[in-house]
Each structure stands twice: as structure tokens, then as C-alpha cells.
């Protein structure tokens, strides 16, 4: 059983495994082979001869041949062997490199190899230094003297032991034959150069920080250990696997597709800022730039994910969806993302907002997800957490990907963007200009500033509420407009005949008194109501949006049917549920609400079909809506008075008195 | 005692049986190799990058670096006890964050640019708010029992950490508490990487295994073996379906997530230094791997060949990073310099 040390450990325990040592040792053994290894020669040293000395050039040549590499790489490898301590230089022993000439080297004895079995102890180093001191006083180098003094201070308590050991070793060494003694001294000296390098040199033994878990310890094999492995392996086996050829093929294709977008493989236009110190590339590719570059637009065609992750691409897509009247999908997706990555404090509030805007029956921007997903989502919304809308978000994502994305690629919106996209020319700077660029480098805009600009832009969008996408009976809260994906192009549909949008006058409606934010649509409704008996023709925007006028007309019709505005709004606004003082838990609209009749009518207009069988078409609503619009448009052209209410033609049986 | 031993032997046999089964399952889908698929792909040739900038300012070994989401700013951590936030384009140091504990091993930049996190031998992950007038400690996440080897932000409210106590952990920054603890490794976790869709992440550990985890469920989904030593660096292939690992056994390997096996290995007999860090270029075609031999070698992902080298450092390359726009690669080294290449 491994006992974990729970105390804060500022020096962890175990040396990291240096697997490269094993590789080096293998090569070393081959090098020392008498037949196929490096040729050795005896070295003459005054009167003694030391066998088995090898020259640097021989080592390099052998390595180049054995590893099939060029001389420079062989030299690097050789230097590494010297740095690790497997070979040591006989001349210039402090520099641990291979010199490609006749300088002599010797193989280090395995006793001094840098194994990981025992760490290099300071005690041994102290003994070594003491021994050298005994042999000849003043022979220690400056850094060695400093080390000696430091160790003397640090190990004062065992200094007697150290001196005794040093004397013993010195005496034993004197009894050896001279050649052996010389060899051993060289080896020992080389060992310590590796493990206690002189200052200013880089030590190959420097491995950084120790590991916490002993790499040599084996986990005890209890039954539990095996059971865990078995469960995991069984789950693993059952998981579906894709054929590797398919997967690898996808990778190869990915590389090929993005190759022209990789600054390492292709030139980037106009120029790489790191090369020319000119920031045009970055300016042209800001997140929310007005006109994108052609490369950027090309990336949108690679995958739906690319389009959505680029804010400019998303804007374009949003514009396209607005024209198709399916902007709620993207708005829902964006609000899910906001929920996932936002702060925990705002989460339940956001989840509630999303529910009311997109999921509730009668919601203004109801999204079309299948019954099962809706059920799961509604259930989990009772306990909202960060990922509560995952299932629904995935469904909508796939919907957009399989359906809208394809049509977007063929749409005039995209084609227009593609046509307008910039393809900058390559910069051709002279040396003088490059110098000038380098001098003119400026810091970038702080990300905080950029985010503030983004938020300001969003707020501006929120101010131009696009009522073709919103239900007039619900209260759009300011941040809701962000989710509704209002396009940032000044909407031609913002009709001049609805000026009240600009100011935030409080409404006398009982709902707005209870709520902290007034709704633009309520205000509109009030204004409508006020002018209802007036000029109906004025309600029709010139050449405008048929659905808007339909909305206005239908409200008037409802009003004529004798409902008072206050009670109607009270019953129709989903927000009234919270105003009614219910608990903080999100409650779906129950069947026992008094607002049964009007919602049903509005239901038809706002395309709510809660009982759709799951196997129904993906966009039954859209096509119907389009049909309605074309029908209405054709009839609308006759005259203002003949504008037809959508549900009049669609569901005559829903008319209530 | 004998009965226990018999039981253990039986379990061991069952385990081995399952292991052969999973090997068979993997072999069954292994109908194509990378060399076959990449055979028709043009070679990238020799990739020669030049050192464009050297950022000097640290006084000791640099252990970690991380690019900001704007691809211009970068944060680096050194054992002199400072985090430096650079504007790499102008070469200016924007913020210097003094650390309580100088033994820092990892640093991360939040995608929003507001926060920076660091951790090391103090077993804690400290999150700093760098947008305040002077950098303020926002949170000290203290529950690991081992050193912090790697941290990555998911957003301004969540952060993932990998620790030497063999666990990875997902924290909630607002409460400062652990949300999920991912336990399965039996060696120190050395590095982690988030998937592009942020639903999963991968971790590499000293037990020479790389594991894929699901962030929501908190469980290990897949395990990849093949290395013979500590995995020091790990990264996702840009399409999110493959991972690349770098290990102390001097090789890098690519594993495919969907077919659950190793696809290709990147090793060379003349390279005998451990991989400390790695990063991929935007298209995934190039792998920049920092080694202990003071160089950063460039590999062709598809062909498995070495196509370039970045030499210039005087000590081990400890960290490598490619920014989001992929315009260059930055290497940080124990020689206390950061070099930008392209």
C-alpha cells in the first residue's frame, strides 16, 4: 500500500525516469564491442600507458555509420553521451563535448554510469573533495573550494566520518598499481564533473523537479485492482469503433483542406505581422470586421462549426436566417452557449429566460425540437445547471447544420458576402520600410476594450428590436434581444410608423407595473390600441412587412371581440406567471390556466404544435408560414382594408367570440 | 492465503483475456495505416524557420508559457518567482505578477484575457485578475495533494488542473471549490489539453498512459498506451479526433480517438532526449516538439519525418506554444529566454 504524504511537500520524492539513459546505454555497449565497436588505442602518459583510449573523430564516424545520420547529428549524439557521463575526455576534462579531431576519450566504467538506482549524494562529494585535498593541498578549483566550504558548514556533524572515509580511500588508492590509480582518478574526476558541474555550464543531469509517485513502485494487485481494469476494458470493448482508414483519411483531408490557411505552409496575405511588423493582417481579420477577407469566407465553407465559431460568420448566418424567419434557432444556440460559459449566479435567471423565450408553450421564439428532447429538457429545467440545455442545443445545432447551412451556402446573402470579400495584395516592403515598420509597432487593443466594444454593439442591436421576430404579447427584456439575433444592419423593417420604440415610456398596463422592464411590444400594443380606431391604412408600412400588419390587425380584432387590454395581457403574457408570485422554480404553463382560448389562436399564428409526432418533417412550420405569407401577400396587394389575418384562412374553427 | 492467491490468479487471467479481446477489437478496425493514407500527399519539404524575436526578462528557468486568445499576448512563468505577460509583437512586458511560491510549473491564460492562473510545487492553483490596477489574487484553489503540473481555463468561471497526485480536477472559480475530480491515473499527471469543442479533455501521466475524459460525466472514456516512459506533453489534433503525445522515451505518438489506437510514431534513432512540450500548427500538418537536447524539432504529422529544427537555445526547451491564428511558434527554455519563430 502506498502511503501518500498529505503534507505540503516542497520537494517531491522521486527522480523522473530518464528513459533516454537506457537508449544511450545500449549504444554504449555496442560501441565497446571489441570487434564492431570503436577502435581503441593505448595512450602514452609519461611512463605509463593507459589502454583503450579512443579519438573523437573515430567516435563520430562510428556513430554516423551506426545511426545512419550525418556528421553534425552524430557529433550532437556523441556530445550527449559525454554530457551524460558515458564517455569522458582525457584532455580538457571540464568541457563535456566531443571534438571532431584526435582528442582522446575513454569509456566510463559502469560503476560511474548515471543510473537511477542511487541519487548522487553530497556526502560522497564531500569525501571526494576531502580526498583531493589530502592528496595535494590547494589543488581544488575555485568553485570546488566554495563547495567544500559549504559542505563543511552543512555537514559539520559528520565531518569526522567524511575525513576518515577520505583518508581510507586515499590509503587504499596508494596501494594500487600506477596505471589503475591514474585511470580510477580520471574516472572519478569525470564523474564529478558530470554531477557537480562547474558554474556556467549546463548539466545534462539537471532533470528539473522530482516526481511524486515512485515510478519504480508496483501497484499492489488486489482483487479490486483487477475488477476495475475489467469493468473499464469491458466498457471499452463495447464502444463502437470507426475503421482506422476512415479516421486517418479524415485527418489527411483536414490537413489538405487547411494547408492553404496554415501560415507555416502558405503565405498569408498581405503579410505575416511577425515577419514584416505590419499589422494589416490582424486589422483585416478582427472578430467583428465589416468586410471579411476571402480566406476567412472560405473557411466558413469548410464546416458548420467554423461558420459558427467566427463572429463575423455568425452575423452573416444570422442575416440569412432572418430572411428565412428561422432566426430563433441560432438565437437559441447562442443563448445556450451563454448559459454554459457564463457565471453561476446568472444561470438560473438565464435558464428561465431561455425557457420563456424558446421552449414554453406560447413562447415568442419557439424552437422546433422533437417531443422527447423537449420532455427531457423541460424536466431538467426544474433543476437548472450549466449543461441543462445540452440535448436541445445539440438537436438545434444538427438541425441548422443539416438544413440551414446548406441553404446558406447557396443563398444570395452568402454570395454577396463572398463577392464583397477582400483579397489583399501581398506587401512588398523594402528594407528601409521594414525598419520603419519595426519602429512603428504599437500595442494591441486590450481584450477588455474589444469586449466592451462588442457589448456596446450588442446593446445597440437590442435597441433596434425587430418585431417581425418577436411576439408582441410578451415582454422582451433587453438582453433577450441579443438572443433574438437582431441583425446589426439597420433594419429596413423598423417602420417609421412605430416611433414609440425609441422611448421607454412606462405603460399603464398592470403587467408592466409588476415588472421591472417595460416591453416594447406592449407599448406597441398600447399605441396600436390607441390608434386602433384611427387610420388603419397608416398601420400598413409602405411596401412593408406583411406579417407586421397582420399582427396589428389581429390585435385589433381581438380587442373588438370585447377583451379588455389589461385582462388579455394578463392572461397572454407568460411573464404573468412569475408576477403571480410563484416560486423561483420554472413552471411550465399548465393546462388549467384561464388563458386557454386566446393562446390557441395565437398558437396557430406562432406555429406552436406541441402534439407533433416525432417523425414529422423538420420544417413543416416554415413552409406553411411561407405559404401563408405568399397567400396573404397576393391578397394584400389589393388594398389595405383587405389584409387577411393568417388564422382566419388557416383554422376557421378556432374563432371565438 | 492460498485461496486469495487463487482468486487473484483467476482475476488476472480474466483480465488478460479481456485485454486480448480489446486488442482483437482494435485490430479488427485497423484496416488502413497512416503511411498508406498519406502516401499520395505531397511532402512539405524542409521547413526552415527563423528566430524573429527573443524575449528577455526572466532571470531563471522558464517552465511554462501560454498564448492569449488574441494571438499577440502571452504569459510565461519562471522559477525566479515571476509571471510575465508580454505583448509579443512589440516585445513589451505588460504585467509582472509576483508569485508567492517561486516553484511554478504551469501557467494559463483565460480565453477572455482577464485572468491568468499558475501553480507548481505549492500544490495550489492561484488565479490572478490581471485587469485590475495591479494584479490581484482572485482565488487560491487548494485541494490537490501533489504539485500542479498543468492548468487550463474553460471560461472565466471554470478551470481544469492536472496534478502530481495523479488526479485532474475541474474547479468552479466562483466558489473556489472542486466540481469534479478525475481519478484513474496511477502516475503523476503531467499535462492536459482541452478538446476544440470543450466537451472532453485528454491528460498524459507518468504511468505512460494518455486518457480521454468526459467533462460532464467525470469518467475516463478511453486509455491509450504505447509509450514506455512518462508522457510530458499532450495536444489535440485540430479536428478533435486525434491526439499527439510527447514522452520521456524520446518519441511522440499520434493516437486516433475514433478507432482507439496508435496511428503513427515520431522517433529517430539519433534523437536521444525526452520530449518536454509540443504544439501543432493550425492545419495539423506540423508538430513542434521541444526536447531536452536544447532544440525544438519539427515533424511532418502525416509522413512521420523530421522536417526541421529550431536551434538557438542554450538549455532544455521546456515549453512550446502556437497561438490561435497559427502565425508563429514560441519556445521557452531553461536558459530563461523565449524565442518566437516563423
For the record, give the distance between the C-alpha atoms at the N and C termini of chain A, rounded to a whole number.
Answer: 81 Å
| Rg on CA atoms of chain A, Å | 40 Å
For the largest beta-sheet of chain B, the strand count, sense and barrel status come to:
4 strands, antiparallel
| CATH H-level superfamily of the largest domain in chain B | YVTN repeat-like/Quinoprotein amine dehydrogenase
Mean pLDDT of chain B: 92
Strand tally of chain A: 4
Percentage of residues in helical conformation of chain A = 40-55%
Assembly category: heterodimer
Q: How do the SSEs of chain B run, as a string of H and E? A: HHEEEEEEEEEEEEEEEEEEEEEEEEEEEE
- In the predicted model, the low-confidence regions of chain A spanning at least 5 consecutive residues are 1-12, 467-549, 562-657
Total number of helical segments of chain B?
Answer: 2
Largest interface: A-B, 95 and 119 residues
| Structural Rg of chain B | 20 Å
Q: What is the straight-line distance between the termini of chain B?
A: 64 Å
Shape of chain B: globular
Which structural class fits the helix and strand makeup of chain B? mainly beta
Strand order of the largest sheet of chain B: 1-28-27-26
Structure write-up:
Chain A: Keywords: Membrane, Sensory transduction, Signal transduction inhibitor, Vision. Chain A: Residues 303-418 form the RGS domain. The complex is a heterodimer of chains A (657) and B (342). Chain A is 52% helix and 3% strand. Chain A contains 31 helices and four strands. In chain A, strand 1 (41-45) and strand 2 form a beta hairpin. The longest helix of chain A is centred in the middle third of the chain and has 21 residues, at 390-410. With 342 residues, chain B is mainly beta. Chain B folds into two domains: 1-29; 48-341, YVTN repeat-like/Quinoprotein amine dehydrogenase (Methylamine Dehydrogenase, Chain H). Chain B is built from two helices and 28 strands. In chain B, the strands form seven sheets. In chain B, strands 1-28-27-26 form a four-stranded antiparallel beta sheet, with no helix packed on it. A four-stranded antiparallel beta sheet of chain B has the order 2-3-4-5, with no helix packed on it. Chains A and B meet through helix 1, helix 3, helix 8, helix 9 and helix 10 of A and helix 1, helix 2 and strand 17 of B.
Amino acid at each position: 500500500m502506498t502511503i501518500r504524504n498529505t503534507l505540503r511537500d516542497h520537494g517531491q520524492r522521486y527522480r523522473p525516469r530518464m528513459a533516454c539513459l537506457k537508449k544511450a546505454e545500449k549504444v554504449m555497449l555496442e560501441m565497446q564491442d571489441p570487434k564492431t565497436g570503436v577502435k581503441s588505442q593505448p595512450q602514452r602518459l609519461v611512463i605509463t600507458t593507459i589502454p583503450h583510449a579512443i579519438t573523437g573523430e573515430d567516435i563520430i564516424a562510428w556513430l554516423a555509420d551506426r545511426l545512419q545520420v550525418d556528421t553534425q547529428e552524430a557529433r550532437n549524439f556523441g556530445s550527449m553521451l559525454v554530457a551524460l557521463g558515458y564517455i569522458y575526455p582525457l584532455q580538457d576534462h571540464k568541457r563535456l563535448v566531443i571534438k571532431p579531431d584526435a582528442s582522446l576519450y575513454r569509456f566510463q566504467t559502469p560503476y560511474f554510469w548515471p543510473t537511477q538506482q542511487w541519487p548522487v549524494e553530497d556526502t560522497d562529494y564531500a569525501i571526494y573533495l576531502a580526498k583531493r585535498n589530502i592528496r595535494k593541498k590547494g589543488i581544488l578549483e575555485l568553485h570546488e573550494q566554495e563547495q567544500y566550504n559549504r559542505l563543511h558548514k552543512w555537514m559539520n556533524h559528520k565531518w569526522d566520518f567524511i575525513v576518515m572515509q577520505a583518508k581510507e580511500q586515499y590509503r587504499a588508492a596508494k596501494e594500487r598499481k600506477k596505471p589503475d590509480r591514474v585511470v580510477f582518478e580520471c574516472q572519478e574526476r569525470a564523474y564529478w564533473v558530470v554531477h557537480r558541474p562547474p558554474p556556467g555550464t549546463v548539466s545534462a543531469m539537471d532533470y528539473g523537479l522530482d516526481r511524486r509517485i515512485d515510478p519504480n513502485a508496483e501497484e499492489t494487485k488486489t482483487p479490486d485492482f483487477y475488477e476495475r481494469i475489467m469493468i473499464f476494458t469491458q466498457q471499452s470493448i463495447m464502444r463502437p469503433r470507426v475503421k482506422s482508414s476512415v479516421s486517418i483519411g479524415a485527418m489527411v483531408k483536414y490537413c489538405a483542406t487547411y494547408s492553404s490557411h496554415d501560415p507555416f505552409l502558405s503565405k498569408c496575405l498581405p503579410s505575416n505581422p511577425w515577419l514584416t511588423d505590419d499589422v494589416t493582417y490582424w486589422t483585416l481579420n478582427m472578430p467583428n470586421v465589416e468586410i471579411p477577407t476571402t480566406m476567412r469566407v472560405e473557411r466558413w465553407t469548410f464546416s458548420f462549426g467554423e461558420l459558427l465559431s467566427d463572429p463575423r460568420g455568425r452575423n452573416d448566418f444570422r442575416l440569412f436566417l432572418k430572411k428565412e424567419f428561422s432566426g430563433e434557432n441560432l438565437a437559441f444556440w447562442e443563448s445556450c452557449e451563454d448559459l454554459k460559459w457564463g457565471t453561476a449566479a446568472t444561470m438560473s435567471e438565464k435558464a428561465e429566460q431561455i425557457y420563456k423565450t424558446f421552449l414554453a408553450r406560447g413562447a415568442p421564439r419557439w424552437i422546433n425540437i422533437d417531443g422527447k428532447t423537449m420532455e427531457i429538457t423541460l424536466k431538467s429545467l426544474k433543476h437548472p445547471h450549466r449543461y441543462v440545455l445540452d440535448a436541445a442545443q445539440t438537436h438545434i445545432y444538427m438541425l441548422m447544420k443539416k438544413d440551414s447551412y446548406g441553404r446558406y451556402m447557396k443563398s444570395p446573402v452568402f454570395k454577396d458576402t463572398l463577392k464583397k470579400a477582400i483579397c489583399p495584395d501581398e506587401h512588398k516592403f523594402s528594407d528601409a520600410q521594414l525598419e520603419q515598420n519595426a519602429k512603428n509597432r504599437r500595442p494591441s487593443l486590450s481584450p477588455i476594450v474589444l469586449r466592451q466594444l462588442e457589448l456596446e454593439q450588442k446593446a445597440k442591436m437590442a435597441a433596434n428590436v425587430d418585431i417581425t421576430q418577436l411576439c408582441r404579447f410578451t415582454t422582451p427584456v433587453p438582453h433577450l434581444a441579443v438572443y433574438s439575433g437582431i441583425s446589426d444592419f439597420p433594419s429596413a423593417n423598423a417602420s417609421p410608423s412605430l416611433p414609440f420604440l425609441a422611448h421607454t415610456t412606462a405603460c399603464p398596463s398592470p403587467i408592466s407595473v409588476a415588472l421591472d422592464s417595460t416591453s416594447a411590444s406592449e407599448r406597441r400594443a398600447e399605441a396600436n390600441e390607441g390608434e386602433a380606431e384611427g387610420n388603419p391604412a397608416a398601420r400598413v408600412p409602405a411596401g412593408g412587412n406583411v406579417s407586421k400588419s397582420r399582427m396589428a390587425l389581429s390585435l385589433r380584432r381581438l380587442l373588438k371581440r370585447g377583451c379588455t387590454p389589461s385582462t388579455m395581457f394578463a392572461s397572454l403574457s407568460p411573464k404573468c406567471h412569475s408576477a403571480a408570485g410563484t416560486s423561483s422554480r420554472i413552471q411550465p404553463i399548465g393546462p388549467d390556466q384561464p388563458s386557454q382560448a386566446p393562446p390557441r389562436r395565437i398558437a396557430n399564428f406562432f406555429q406552436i404544435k406541441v402534439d407533433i409526432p416525432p417523425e414529422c418533417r423538420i420544417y413543416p412550420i416554415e413552409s406553411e408560414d411561407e405559404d401563408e405569407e405568399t397567400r396573404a401577400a397576393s391578397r394584400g396587394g389589393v388594398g389595405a382594408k383587405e389584409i387577411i389575418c393568417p388564422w382566419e384562412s388557416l383554422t376557421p374553427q378556432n374563432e371565438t367570440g | 492465503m492460498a485461496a486469495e492467491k487463487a482468486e487473484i490468479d483467476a482475476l488476472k487471467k480474466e483480465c488478460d483475456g479481456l485485454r486480448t479481446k480489446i486488442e482483437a477489437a482494435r485490430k479488427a478496425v485497423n484496416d488502413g495505416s497512416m503511411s498508406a493514407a498519406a502516401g499520395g500527399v505531397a511532402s512539405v519539404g524542409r521547413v526552415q524557420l527563423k528566430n524573429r524575436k527573443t524575449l528577455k526578462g526572466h532571470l531563471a528557468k522558464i517552465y511554462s508559457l501560454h498564448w492569449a486568445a488574441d494571438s499577440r499576448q502571452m504569459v510565461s512563468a519562471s522559477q525566479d518567482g515571476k509571471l510575465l505577460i508580454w505583448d509579443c509583437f512589440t516585445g513589451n512586458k505588460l504585467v509582472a505578477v509576483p508569485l508567492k511560491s517561486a516553484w511554478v510549473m504551469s501557467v494559463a491564460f483565460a480565453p477572455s484575457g482577464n485572468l491568468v492562473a499558475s501553480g507548481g510545487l505549492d500544490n495550489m492553483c492561484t488565479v490572478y485578475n490581471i485587469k485590475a490596477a495591479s494584479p490581484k489574487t482572485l482565488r487560491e484553489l487548494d485541494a490537490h495533494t501533489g504539485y500542479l503540473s498543468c492548468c487550463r481555463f474553460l471560461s472565466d468561471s471554470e478551470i481544469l488542473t492536472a496534478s502530481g497526485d495523479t488526479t485532474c480536477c475541474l474547479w468552479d472559480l466562483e466558489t473556489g471549490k472542486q466540481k469534479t475530480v478525475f481519478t484513474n491515473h496511477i502516475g503523476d499527471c503531467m499535462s492536459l489539453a482541452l478538446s476544440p469543442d470543450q466537451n472532453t479533455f485528454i491528460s498524459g501521466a507518468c504511468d505512460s498512459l494518455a486518457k480521454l475524459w468526459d467533462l460532464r460525466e467525470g469518467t475516463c472514456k478511453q486509455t491509450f498506451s504505447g509509450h514506455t516512459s512518462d508522457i510530458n506533453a499532450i495536444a489535440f489534433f485540430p479536428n478533435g479526433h486525434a491526439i499527439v503525445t510527447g514522452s520521456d522515451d524520446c518519441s511522440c505518438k499520434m493516437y486516433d480517438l475514433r478507432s482507439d489506437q496508435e496511428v503513427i510514431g515520431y522517433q529517430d534513432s539519433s534523437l536521444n532526449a525526452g520530449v518536454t512540450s509540443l504544439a501543432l500548427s493550425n492545419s495539423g500538418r506540423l508538430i513542434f516538439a521541444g526536447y531536452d537536447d536544447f532544440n525544438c524539432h519539427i515533424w511532418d504529422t502525416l509522413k512521420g519525418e523530421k522536417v526541421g529544427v529550431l536551434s538557438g537555445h542554450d538549455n532544455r526547451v521546456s515549453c512550446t506554444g502556437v497561438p490561435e491564428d497559427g502565425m508563429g511558434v514560441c519556445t521557452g527554455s531553461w536558459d530563461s529566454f523565449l524565442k518566437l519563430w516563423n
